[in-house]
Structure formats: structure tokens, C-alpha cells
Amino acid sequence: MICLDWIGREDAIRLAESQPQRKLQKIPELSSGVCAFDNAVIQGDNLQVMTALAPTLRGRVNLAFLDPPYNAARERWVYPDRVRNWYGTVVGAEGEDPLRHDKWLSMMYPRLVLLRILLASSGTLLVTLDDHEAHHARALLDEIFGSENFLANVIWEKTRTPEDSASHFLEAHTHLLVYAKDSETWRPNPSAGKIPTLWSAAEAGDTHEAGVVEPREPGAAYPFVPKPVKLLRRILRAVTHRKGLVFDPFAGSGTMGRAVFEQNAADGGARTFVLVEAGEKASILLPRRLAETPGGSPSYNFYTLV
Ligand SMILES: C[S@@+](CC[C@H](N)C(=O)[O-])C[C@H]1O[C@@H](n2cnc3c(N)ncnc32)[C@H](O)[C@@H]1O
């Protein structure tokens, strides 16, 4: 078996195995509506949250959707784990150093190991990335999920008007890496038919539709571009059945919560969501964006780690 090696790999393996068990505490004043379903918004580092959730969610997640830091420019992604002297340092183009990709792999490894534990045997993992890390992610996912469980690399046309950057190429695509927990038994949504591996902006939306979250908004430390609701609904229609739990550990502004709510309304589904986001984005930005959902905010319980 081919295994990617990097500086920090041993620390990452240790982190996956040795997270302290913490508990979740419900915060009623930040919860929304009467939560008839098990929807949840959880504030905290997603590694610690997944460890806290493992006893209850082990084998229950039908779709794990990951939109992690891309290790690209203008993200101000801060290294989250207490290993080496990396904790709290900015990674990516703003913090360029020779270990930039090692740090990204060290962050992703333990989180992917825990996600696999949370996934149902019929579950799907879908990771969005650009070309900064997609090739590393493929190798890591092949190791953790097994290369036999790779399903597809769907290319989404993220924009029809690519930015003219210093590059000689006009970048217009994003990767959606799709893995099954078990490809032998995995099945798409029966109404999805064969799923194409090329998704146009016309059918799946583009980044312009999603609208940039400005840095001056509370909870947004840096401008970031949410995913379009249309793209996430396209994913839900392709790989989820009408019931099931959708887990988004890098929830940002909570687009997945809104997509689940809208897709349920459209097809009579009863999917539920668990969104995890670090810091004040979870308590300020995410609830505000969910409240803007057409048809009213989805109800959810809000939790923090104690
Ligand atoms: C690319 S954004 C996700 C955008 C989201 N899909 C949306 O549509 O709004 C990645 C998010 O992951 C969050 N994040 C990064 N590392 C995290 C961690 N260790 N735990 C929890 N959230 C994290 C960042 O704060 C950021 O909001």
C-alpha cells in the first residue's frame, strides 16, 4: 500500500488516537425554534467535537461533507492542534513556509480518521478542494478509506468568469472528491441515475451566486466565499436518500444547513444536519446566515464543548 509521508505524520496519528473526551453542552439561548429533528450547530474545534460525538454518532452519518481550508491564498487559516510549535500560526499563502503542506496533512489526517468512524456503512464522504491540496487529499483518503472506496472526482465549474491572476491559466474548477465507506454496498440516490463527473455552473451554481462574506461582518475574520446552496443541494440529490444525517465539520456560514432544509422542502425529505464551526463564526455568522433561509430558519439546537 502506498502511504504518503510528511513531517508531522507521527503527531497526526497520535492525535487521532489520543483525543481527550469532552462533552457537549446545549445553549438554549442560541438554539433556534423547537427542534423537532436532531439538527445541531456545534461551536468548537471539529476534532474535539467529533471525539465528543463518537459515542452517539458512530456509524450513523450518511453524508460527511467537508469544505476545509484549501491551503490557498487569502484564507488566514490558523493551525488548530497543539503539536510542535504550529498551534495558532497562520498557514497558507499568508504564512508561506516549507512545511505548509505538511501542516495541512497533519490537520486533515486525524479528522479523516474520526470521520470514517462516524460514517454509516452505506455512507459517503465528499471533500471539496482546489489544486493546492487535492492530490495530497487523494493519497490520504486512499490510505484511510482504501483506494477501492474511491468513487469519483467530480469537477464543478465554480465560475464562468475566472479571475485573471498571475497564473497563465484561468482557473474555473473545484474538485469534489467522493469516497464510500464501503463501495461494494454504496448506492446513490435512486432518482439520481448515473452521476456525471462534470457539473456546470448552470446546474450547480457558481461562487458569484454564493456572495462573499466580508471581513468586517461579525464572525468573519477574513473574506471567504461560501458554497452556493445550489451546489450543496445538487450533492444532496446525488448521494443522499431522503432520510439521513448530513455532517459538516467545516460549516463556515452554514450553507449545508440551509441546503438540507431547502432540499427537504423540495422532495419531502427528512434529512437532518450537524454543523461544526470554530470560534465566533458559529455563534454569530452561521445563525445569521441560517436565519436568511427562504421560508424561515431551520430549527436546531446549539451546543458548545465543555
Ligand atoms: C471554506 S470554509 C467553509 C465554507 C462553508 N462551506 C460555507 O458555505 O459557508 C472553511 C471553514 O472551516 C472552519 N474551520 C477551519 N478549521 C476548523 C476546525 N479545526 N474546526 C472547526 N472549524 C474549522 C473555518 O473557520 C471556515 O469557516
Walk me through this protein's architecture.
It is a single chain. The chain contains 9 helices and 12 strands. With 306 residues, it is α/β, with parallel strands linked by helices. The chain has one domain (9-163, 170-250, 292-305): Vaccinia Virus protein VP39 (Rossmann fold, 3-Layer(aba) Sandwich), CATH 3.40.50. S-adenosylmethionine binds at residues 45-46, 67, 69, 80, 224, 226-227, 250, 252-253, 255, 276-278, 281.
Q: How would you characterize the largest beta sheet? A: 10 strands, mixed
At the third CATH level, what is the topology name?
Answer: Rossmann fold
Specify the CATH architecture: 3-Layer(aba) Sandwich
As an assembly, this protein is single chain
Primary descriptors:
single chain, 306 residues, alpha/beta, two-stranded antiparallel ribbon, 9 helices, 12 strands, globular, binds S-adenosylmethionine
